[in-house]
Amino acid sequence: MHSGMDYAILTGGDIAPMGSEGVTAVHKVFEWAKTSRKGFMLVLASNQPEQFDWAINDRMDEIVQFTLPGLEERERLVRHYFDRFLLQPSLTKSHRIRLAENIDYAVKCAEIAKRTTGLSGREISKIAVGWQTAAYSSEDGVLTEGMMDAVVDSAIAANRQKQEWRHYRLPDAVDAVPN
What we know:
Layout lengths: L11 H4 L5 H14 L19 H6 L11 H20 L7 E2 L5 H11 L5 H17 L4 E2 L1 H25 L10
Helix pairs in contact: 4-5, 4-6, 6-7
GO biological process, one term: mitochondrion organization
GO molecular function, one term: zinc ion binding
Keywords: Coiled coil
């Protein structure tokens, strides 16, 4: 059911560039929220919830865990971002992206979904942006299967590195370093 509440969305990417003015901006949002007749709701979201201070977690009325996407969700995400960042731009004359003709993209997306266990939706979207970048930066603007694999390999390696760093910072984390 629709709450009818007014809302504001802020991310770290909105606040960080403000530097010391970021605190003032957050205070302005809370002052604005006080004017609502229906109250307000604060939602904190993170792929690294262990980074939240214990006192913050203790003051949250509800904590909802969103797990990493499973195989089916990853395949839908890969297909969605493939469409958004590659197929749609390839259909316009103003973009110079072309897709190699020898790739079965349905099969390739399913293969990539299987390889990306442990990656978040954001990490999967960044893979598709990487494919787009690879195509734009190539001489002929064609995205090949090899280019796709290289971007996926890089994303998987980056995820492993982040997990290792997390393990060293939080050695008791159960799922910190996947095998």
